[in-house]
Here is the input.
Amino acid sequence: MPDSDKVLLAHGSGGKLAHEIVRNSVVSALDNPILNVLDDSAVINANGRLAFTTDSYVVQPIFFPGGDIGKLAVCGTVNDLSMSGARPMYLSLAFIIEEGLPVADLKKILASIGQTAAEAGVKIVTGDTKVVDRGSADKIFINTAGVGMVPEGVNISAANARPGDKVIVSGNIGDHGIAVMSQREGLKLQVPVPSDCAPLNSMVAEMLAVTARIHCLRDPTRGGLATTLNDFAEKSNVGIRIEEEQIPIDKAVAAACELLGFDPLYIANEGKLVAVVAPEDTENVLKTIKHNKYGADAVIIGEAVTEHPGKVVMKTALGASRIVDIPVGELLPRIC
Amino acid sequence: MPDSDKVLLAHGSGGKLAHEIVRNSVVSALDNPILNVLDDSAVINANGRLAFTTDSYVVQPIFFPGGDIGKLAVCGTVNDLSMSGARPMYLSLAFIIEEGLPVADLKKILASIGQTAAEAGVKIVTGDTKVVDRGSADKIFINTAGVGMVPEGVNISAANARPGDKVIVSGNIGDHGIAVMSQREGLKLQVPVPSDCAPLNSMVAEMLAVTARIHCLRDPTRGGLATTLNDFAEKSNVGIRIEEEQIPIDKAVAAACELLGFDPLYIANEGKLVAVVAPEDTENVLKTIKHNKYGADAVIIGEAVTEHPGKVVMKTALGASRIVDIPVGELLPRIC
Here is the structure.
């Protein structure tokens, strides 16, 4: 069979072409001694509390300002592990590719995966490639699962917020959603918005070096800041009060949201975290986040309270209070 | 938003409908205390050598004789872990669903996942659901990743075959591929062939209780027995000699292969294993496999030899010898 610049059904068959693409493209981009064995499972050493997570990525378009589906797939799983307090270590990587995807696109995505994994200090140790016929998928879908170790003494959960705890956001919200959305819809924003897509494991490690009393931690992806805060309020059975004026938003994102009729509280982020922290640790944690390259714009946006348990209430810029609910239906499909 | 009997884009949005489907369908089908926490990562205890693997499932049709995409997704990952000698423990479960999938189909698949996981003694501890617009996927794709612990003293690898070792197959080959193929193409076989889809972890545990000297172990899925044996020969740098007359094939499968022009050596299996075992352990291991409910038809089909390293040679029923190569291109797309 001749060389092809498109991915063929045969590339997912388990035959020679499949071997070729795995060896030439995947292993060369992600070279490490565990992956190179190419047995059915990777075998690694683990002692203690293991965090384990998975996400599939179906973002459309697959390339967008500030990232691509590959970078997103690594950051998303690295961040999910980090939000449990774990040190991310190993990732799996599974592709579902639509027949006809340019091999050049696959290589670009693999390079991006390799680069992001290197930055985050994680290894891709096992993987899978399936190819489906044209029209049965949309270019490429990626699943990553990840494992990491949770250091002793760390106990982070959405159920751990206590009245008096402060709520910190690590930077501007809504960048990722607006970046993908404007690329997809061909919107010409006055100032282009790049996705905030970034691995946050170094930030979390630095925070945990300051104090183990990080109560809740979450990256506000699908459903945005509002959904994350509601989850904390519900699971911890506390109220959460936030101040609209404190919520950091890039001007271009705010303008795009106004134009499109979106509330930035509900827009996905891929390089931000929300932390609920004991009051006595708040200043130190905030300072630490601000020192990290992805946390310069971090601020305290509110606190956990005994009133209105399970609900998030926002004091608006005009001084009124409104309940910030979770969205019922679809906001932005295929944002990650 | 009204109740729907179809999966909607909103079910994958991170909003209320997404919460509802996760709580009502997924968690109720797979109930266990780790999953129920629904944090970003599952946290579990691990001490020792951890096996970690992933596979995506894109089988078409999603329901077929003897199984469905859900059963397949659990068995596939349980079996990949088992083939490294690991005891499978925890699985992740990620859906990519095409908008419009009947919710009844999703529930049937979830029930099947729950049942298969229970049989295999594994827990689904973390997951993800994405919904894409109609036409951007084909009904449902599933990714499972899995972790398990490798017992001390176990050292299984495709690179471990030694001349003199015997090659055992745990039963009839080709059932899964022919079952899916005939369902997809609407073939009316004289005798219907059900998929062999089954979790093999109990079989492997029983084998390892007999001897730690299992050298190679693999479930011959995509690419079939031929591809598995070639991988062993290549990685172990030994020749493998097999006898056509010893290879167990169901009559209906043999007939279907003849009709369709397929070589059963290349057809996918989902409930079979190939073991390469030290000669002194062969009889005991074979007896053990035959006692397992999925191993009644196990046989020795050949051995590893010093001649023709890296190649698989088959003595045919007529006494001739032929090289059994790995396939170049596509055999049966979307078989798993």
Residues 29 and 180 of chain A are 25 Å apart (CA to CA). Residues 166-323 of chain A form a domain with the Phosphoribosyl-aminoimidazole Synthetase; Chain A, domain 2 fold (CATH 3.90.650.10). The longest helix of chain A spans residues 103-120. The longest strand of chain A covers residues 42-57.
